[in-house]
Amino acid sequence: MIFNKDTAEKTAELLLQINAIKLNPRNPFTWASGWQSPIYCDNRIILSFPTIRNYVRDEFSKNIEKQFGKPDVIAGVATGAIGIGMLVAESLGLPFVYVRPEPKKHGRQNQVEGFLQSGQNVVIVEDLISTGNSSLLAVEALRAAGANVKGMAAIFTYGFDVAQENFKNANVDLFTLSNYQNLLNLAVAKRYITEEEEATLREWNLSPSTWGVEK
């Protein structure tokens, strides 16, 4: 679910402007999962644009507090959301921790890095939601550490049905600055893509794991 429509449209436009999101239906990308995709999103690029990263920080800060109430701690998901998560924590005057995909193999073998007390209310900041599996590993780690996870806030989601189901099953509220639907609407309106390319992008979104696979 998006925080609000105005933010969703503005965020989508900014991501397209700086090529954090690239749309290429004619020459698809290959994801790490092996999926073929006409879209690629790399929100780490946001950190290189001060005005845009500040916009994302401010939208996160006000909407997190509005939606979840002010938490005790902000957690970022490693590695993509560490930078923006720190900015949000600084803006809200809150402690920050980050969550690794798995515990370290050496030293203290931490998965949650930073100071976190059992019972503290935590909001997780994430950069991108695809299936939600990796993001929900962070939820599991924080809950195992005794945190009360109030919810997750992400920059962008592809809006896959499987992600919605995964978050529902994990009992985690997810809100995003923008999503796939608002991105496509804006991309057509601003002529980043043609109506034919929009149709291809919508087709992919319905079945991303099988799209582009020769039968």
UniProtKB/TrEMBL annotation:
It catalyses: orotidine 5'-phosphate + diphosphate = orotate + 5-phospho-alpha-D-ribose 1-diphosphate. Pathway: Pyrimidine metabolism; UMP biosynthesis via de novo pathway; UMP from orotate: step 1/2. Its cofactor is Mg(2+). Transmembrane segments: none annotated. Keywords: Glycosyltransferase, Magnesium, Pyrimidine biosynthesis, Transferase. GO terms for biological process: 'de novo' UMP biosynthetic process; pyrimidine nucleobase biosynthetic process. It comes from the Bacteria. SUPFAM superfamilies: PRTase-like. The keyword Transferase applies. The keyword RNA-binding does not apply. Orotate binds at S130. 5-phospho-alpha-D-ribose 1-diphosphate binds at R100, K104, H106, E126, D127, L128, I129, S130, T131, G132, N133, S134. Coiled coil: none annotated. Its EC number is 2.4.2.10. GO terms for molecular function: magnesium ion binding; orotate phosphoribosyltransferase activity. HAMAP family: PyrE. Catalyzes the transfer of a ribosyl phosphate group from 5-phosphoribose 1-diphosphate to orotate, leading to the formation of orotidine monophosphate (OMP). NCBIfam families: pyrE. Belongs to the purine/pyrimidine phosphoribosyltransferase family. PyrE subfamily. Homodimer. This is Orotate phosphoribosyltransferase.
